[in-house]
Fold this sequence. Notes:
Blueprint: H1 6-11, H2 14-26, H3 35-47, E1 51-56, E2 60-65, E3 69-79, H4 106-122, E4 128-136, H5 144-150, E5 161-172, E6 176-177, E7 181-184, E8 186-195, E9 199-200, H6 210-228, E10 235-244, E11 250-251, E12 254-263, H7 266-286, E13 290-299, E14 302-304, H8 306-320, H9 338-341, E15 346-354, H10 376-405
Parallel strand pairs: 3-4, 3-5, 5-15
Antiparallel strand pairs: 1-2, 2-4, 6-15, 7-14, 8-12, 8-13, 9-11, 10-12
Helix pairs in contact: 2-4, 3-4, 4-10, 6-7, 8-10
The structure holds nickel (II) ion.
Nickel (II) ion binds at residues 104, 106, 139, 166.
Amino acid sequence: MTLPDFRSEADNLATQLIAWRRDLHQHPELCFQETRTAGLAARTLAKLGYEVRTGVGQTGVVALLHGGRPGPTVMLRADMDALPIQELSDAPYASQTPGVMHACGHDGHVAIGLAAATMLARHAAELPGNVLFLFQPAEEKGGGARAMIADGALADPTPAVAFGLHLWNSLPAGRVAAQAGPLMAAADILKIVVRGRGGHGAHPHETTDAIAVTGQVLSALQTIVSRNVDPQETAVLTIGTVHGGSAFNVIAETVELQGTVRTFSPAVRETVLTRLRVLLDGVTAGMGASYTLDVQGIAPAVVNDPAASEIARAAAIQVVGGAAVAWRPPLMVSEDFSEYGRRVPACFMLLGSGNAGLGLNAPHHNPRFDFDESVLPIGAALLATAAAKFLHDNALATSCSETSRSP
Ligand code: NI
């Protein structure tokens, strides 16, 4: 059987897609506060005939569509949260909530998810299997995917495969990356406290100057990526904040640092974190200070499964044509879609949404971020096509193997 032409069906939903997106854009909600957004998703999905669970992982929504024929379950995910940024926009659909803004395109992801859900529900009778939608909270700070999984989002039924996508402004509108292997890095947050002995600024010999120690620590840490990581591998170690001291004539007792580590391979991550501890031990001990280190993993790396990526790529070629499906180098940003990918074969796609000609090319997390809405139907068609293709291919493989077993 042939797949439905989801691209033209999605084009017919363009007005609805833009209406959803603009409504969500005007009403952005921060991590784990996405109640209005989740309400819109839950109501829409229930009307479409989905079995809906709300409050999953605090503010998440899980929705299950039963196909007309038996088969496995395919999972599709959309993230819902906004960012604590004051929007700088003259658009009529600019954020109405001061200090909160959809600056990463998750408003688009929710609209895309709802349009994909609409199309798949129309074709439910033909589907050999089920579709499980996850509308996820708290992607930005991390924790949303884990919270949903801890609340049983993957338990009943357990999906056989998962797909998701991110609008991406540094790709031209309509381009798609759907590739196997690493796509986005693992992220860890570092919190370091260097502890010395405070005292009078005129009597350094009676103190252990935490600021002087921190200076040596900062230099030492910058050798990890340059001297300890294999140059063929990739890692980032950034110290983003340094806070210490209270007055010109006081030697600081403590200095607090925060930073992040980004890696693709678990072995490289281990190297970076091990060297971090060794250098902190050595430098602080050598200077008579001490330290505490807290490492908090936000998300593992997004590494796309080869078989799932093959399906996503075929879906992308069907939706936008082969010329618009491009490989792109992996990104050092992180995405907690990887939490699903650790448990289920998964592929995360990037959908180009930048349009320099229309001035829609500000980077993600920028106060002027906006994207080309003409790609919304493409996103919906990508998710629906990938899901239906997985179910149909699986049904085909099953019926072939049954035929070959029969005498
Ligand atoms: Ni994002």
